[in-house]
Design brief:
By secondary structure, this protein is mainly α. Helices cover 56% and strands 0% of the residues. The protein has a domain at 19-50.
Length: 50
């Protein structure tokens, strides 16, 4: 979990109505890819700055 504010943006968060058909997977995929790229770059930077 990146933030703890999902319940502000998604009214079904952790309720019985929180089902896969209500999710928008494209933004999830974009966010996941962005986080992966950021963490990959930070890992590479760490090698240059002990």
């Amino acid at each position: 979990m990146i933030t703890d504010t999902a319940f502000y943006r998604y009214p079904y968060y952790h309720t019985a109505q929180d089902t896969p058909d209500k999710l928008n997977y494209v933004p999830f995929a974009k966010m996941t890819n962005g986080l992966f790229l950021m963490l990959s770059r930070l890992t590479k930077m760490e090698k240059h700055y002990p």
